[in-house]
């Protein structure tokens, strides 16, 4: 397997003796694609998938097994596997799946970078500016926001202007785009 994977010069390969060894090391690893065996020493493939679900922004998993069954495939996919292959599998098919998994990881990481930038922008708002923003996101007019916050409509306008300035937004649509970008990234 190592020889096959080393055919891709863009791959940086790291092998682990067991699922447990990988789980011990994974917090310190760079993002990447994890090739798991359904049956392996220590934590099995499903246990590793379960742990990696919380790190889905950093790792994409491909499951291999010599004991293929429909239920195992379903369990792996529900557990968050990007793909499920039966051994022995065609080497080119495996490399193709891994290439797709890396492209998927790149897409997820790019969306996470956008999300993180949006979250940083929103963290610059004061609590009152955040309250005004919440009203805007809910489609409220300045007067409604003012009434709910017990402040003047003019004060809402000032806070709204500050929100626009801090978010470098020209329109309310730009603001909404930043707010929606800050929401959690879901793997597609």
Strand order of the largest sheet: 1-2-3
Question: Kindly state the mean pLDDT as a whole number?
Answer: 86
Task: Give the termini distance in whole angstroms.
Answer: 28 Å
- Beta-strand portion reads 5-15%
Radius of gyration over C-alpha positions, nearest whole angstrom: 23 Å
Helix/strand-derived class? mainly alpha
**What are the secondary-structure elements, in order, as H or E?**
HHEHEHEHHHHH
Percent helix, as a range, is: 55-70%
Count of helix runs: 9
Uncertain spans: none
What is shown here, in short?
Helix content is 55%, strand content 9%.
Which secondary structure elements does this structure contain, and how are they paired or packed?
Elements: H1 2-5, H2 19-25, E1 32-37, H3 45-52, E2 59-65, H4 70-78, E3 83-86, H5 91-123, H6 127-137, H7 142-149, H8 153-166, H9 172-181
Parallel strand pairs: 1-2, 2-3
List keywords for this structure.
188 residues; 9 helices; elongated
Summarize the structure in words.
This protein has 188 residues and is mostly helical. Helices cover 55% and strands 9% of the residues. It is built from 9 helices and 3 strands; from the N terminus they run H-H-E-H-E-H-E-H-H-H-H-H. Strands 1-2-3 form a 3-stranded parallel β-sheet. The radius of gyration is 23 Å and the shape is elongated.
């Amino acid at each position: 397997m190592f020889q096959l994977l080393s055919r891709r010069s863009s791959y940086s390969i790291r092998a682990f003796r067991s699922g447990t060894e990988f789980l011990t090391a994974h917090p310190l690893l760079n993002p990447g694609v994890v090739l798991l065996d359904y049956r392996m020493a220590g934590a099995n493939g499903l246990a590793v998938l379960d742990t990696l679900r919380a790190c889905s922004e950093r790792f994409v998993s491909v499951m291999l097994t010599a004991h293929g069954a429909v239920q195992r495939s379903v369990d792996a996919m529900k557990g968050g596997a990007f793909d499920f292959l039966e051994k022995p599998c065609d080497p080119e098919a495996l490399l193709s799946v891994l290439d797709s998994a890396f492209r998927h990881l790149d897409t997820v990481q790019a969306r996470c970078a956008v999300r993180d930038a949006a979250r940083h922008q929103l963290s610059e708002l004061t609590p009152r500016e955040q309250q005004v923003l919440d009203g805007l996101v809910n489609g409220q007019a300045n007067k409604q926001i003012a009434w709910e916050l017990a402040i003047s409509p003019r004060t809402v306008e000032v806070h709204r202007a500050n929100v626009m300035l801090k978010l470098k937004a020209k329109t309310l649509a730009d603001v909404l785009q930043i707010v929606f970008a800050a929401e959690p990234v879901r793997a597609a």
